[in-house]
Structure to design on (590 residues):
């Protein structure tokens, strides 16, 4: 068996900023890489309280780490200088100036290493570029105490703003004499302030991970096929047992050339979770063809390496706890796993650990009375065995498992599997009729239908209402009922989501164009509802009037295209503004 070579470490720090009164401001995770010769910042992600990026204020940890820049060169020597290009093309010139005594709230630290960097030529390209560039450029001083870490920061930004920070308290082990000790569990609390943000912020940093990568990751083993089995038992609906047989390509490995098998889970919607969907994964093991255990090394956020031998197949086993509905997700409750009284909803990204593979098969083992509703194509008439087109098709599909109700709606070559849970089950015939008429209407408008089977899931929820689309699946959670006599209340949401099968999926963009994919979908679905008699002409016009008012209330600050960077916060510009453009174009075309 091959030893994992620990030539370098990846260190992940979490940062939380709040006001002095404790109101949350921002949170983020920052990844550093440490080798024998350098400590570099390689990645970061931040989000402001209430969604969105806290930039241009950033976080103190960003001011210290920047991104793609070397914080230290080893061995450390006063007088050392180095230059490089960092994130956003910023040019840096760093120098270790000497030793100074520093007094801050956490204490007096003699012989602090004074670290100076001059930043120039930052080239951020976004809507706040001017301010962000002005804050990135400037001169930054850092003071590090041996065995403690950063004790003081002063950043003289190029626009005259000055950021100052001091260490309030810290917890680092006494035996580590590094200038920035990075053991898991080390914690620092800072108070920082600048003239841009008048109120002081209290920011806590914590080392949450520190792990090594095997050295031969550049050349991973290629996979020929993956066969998954998912088992859920009736008395433990929140526990999914996953087993996967991964078979390497026959010619991708030899005895002399052992390659690691790289495995990962999706990062979709987990920017603010340092451990991503692995938070809910338990007991991950790998075994070889002879049933012997093989070590699984964690090499990053939801990334693992398995050291294999002789291109032998590997069996992965793990459990996923479907407790995702205990927290809020950036995409909403309707796109994370949830468990209702009669069914389990689960997207592939929360369940599957996988490698780079195209030939995928999945068997789902559930109690006899349960249905499994998915958009995947079944294999023969075997119960709940599916072929999956590729890795994305596995990851970005939804599944509904349970005693919900399932029916197919077909029209003009389009096939939609409808899955309804809870009291929505009673409305299956009505929903099936509606979906069918929408499929027909849209295929007339767009001149055809996408040729894959799709899934439409709707479940009742009295605390949340929303819908989403992922791959070939649509999910809706909503309050109320799906009856014929209140069609005008539920059909518009259903019509909007079904319309995304065309606009947003069949018609897609490389960059976000939400004013089009959301705005035009909103208009197209509303006018279709009016034509089908689901909403009256008066209601349609009143809705247009309301959209106009909402749009005008927010119009002016951002273009509707820029507004798409944060489409939920800027709903009025993206959804309403976009659908007004659609209405204007529709009138012009006639
Ligand atoms: Zn939408």
């Amino acid at each position: 068996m091959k030893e994992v070579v620990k030539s370098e470490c990846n260190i992940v720090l979490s940062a939380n900023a709040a006001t002095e009164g404790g109101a949350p401001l921002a949170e983020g995770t920052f990844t550093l890489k440490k080798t024998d010769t350098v400590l570099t910042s390689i990645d970061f992600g931040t989000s402001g309280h209430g969604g969105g990026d806290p930039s241009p204020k950033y976080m103190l940890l960003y001011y210290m780490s920047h991104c793609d820049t070397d914080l230290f060169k080893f061995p450390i020597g006063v007088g050392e200088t180095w230059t490089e290009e960092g994130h956003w093309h910023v040019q840096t010139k760093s120098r270790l100036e000497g030793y100074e005594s520093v007094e801050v709230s956490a204490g007096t630290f003699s012989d602090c290493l004074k670290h100076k960097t001059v930043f120039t030529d930052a080239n951020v390209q976004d809507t706040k570029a001017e301010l962000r560039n002005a804050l990135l450029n400037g001169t930054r001083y850092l003071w590090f105490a041996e065995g403690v870490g950063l004790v003081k920061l002063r950043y003289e930004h190029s626009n005259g703003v000055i950021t100052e920070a001091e260490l309030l308290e810290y917890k680092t082990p006494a035996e580590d004499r590094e200038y920035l000790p990075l053991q898991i569990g080390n914690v620092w609390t800072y108070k920082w302030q600048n003239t841009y943000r008048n109120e002081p912020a209290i920011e806590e940093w914590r080392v949450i991970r520190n792990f090594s990568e095997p050295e031969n990751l550049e050349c991973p083993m290629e996979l020929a096929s993956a066969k998954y089995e998912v088992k859920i038992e009736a008395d433990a609906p929140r526990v999914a047992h996953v087993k996967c047989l991964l078979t390497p390509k026959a010619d991708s490995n030899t005895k002399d050339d052992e390659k690691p098998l790289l495995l990962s889970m999706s990062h979709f919607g987990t920017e603010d979770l340092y451990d991503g969907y692995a938070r809910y994964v338990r007991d991950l093991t790998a075994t070889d063809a002879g049933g012997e255990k093989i070590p699984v090394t964690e090499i990053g956020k939801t990334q693992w390496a398995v050291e294999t031998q002789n291109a032998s197949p590997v069996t992965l086993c793990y459990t996923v706890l479907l407790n995702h509905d205990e927290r809020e997700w950036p995409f909403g409750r309707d796109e994370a796993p949830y468990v209702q009284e009669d069914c389990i909803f689960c997207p592939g990204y929360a369940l599957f650990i996988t490698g780079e593979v195209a030939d995928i098969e999945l068997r789902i083992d559930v109690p006899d009375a349960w249905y499994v509703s998915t958009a995947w194509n079944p294999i023969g008439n075997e119960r709940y065995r599916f072929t999956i087109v590729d890795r994305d098709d596995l990851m970005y599909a939804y599944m509904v498992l349970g005693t919900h109700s399932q029916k197919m709606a077909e029209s003009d070559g389009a096939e939609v599997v409808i899955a309804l849970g809870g009291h929505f089950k009673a409305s299956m015939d009505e929903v099936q009729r509606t979906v069918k008429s929408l499929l027909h209407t849209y295929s007339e408008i767009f001149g055809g239908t996408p040729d894959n089977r799709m899934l439409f899931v709707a479940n009742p929820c009295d605390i949340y209402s929303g819908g989403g689309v992922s791959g070939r699946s649509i999910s809706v959670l909503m309050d109320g009922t799906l009856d014929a006599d209140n069609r005008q209340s539920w059909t518009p949401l259903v019509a909007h989501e079904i319309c995304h099968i065309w606009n947003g999926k069949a018609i897609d963009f490389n960059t976000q164009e939400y004013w089009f994919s959301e705005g035009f979908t909103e208009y197209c679905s509303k006018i279709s509802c009016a034509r089908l008699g689901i909403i009256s002409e008066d209601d349609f016009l009143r809705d247009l009037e309301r959209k106009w008012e909402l749009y005008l209330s927010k119009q002016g600050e951002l273009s509707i295209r820029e507004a798409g960077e944060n489409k939920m916060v800027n709903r009025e510009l993206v959804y309403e503004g976009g659908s007004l453009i659609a209405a204007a174009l529709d009138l012009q075309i006639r």
Q: What stands out?
A: The two ends are 71 Å apart (CA to CA).
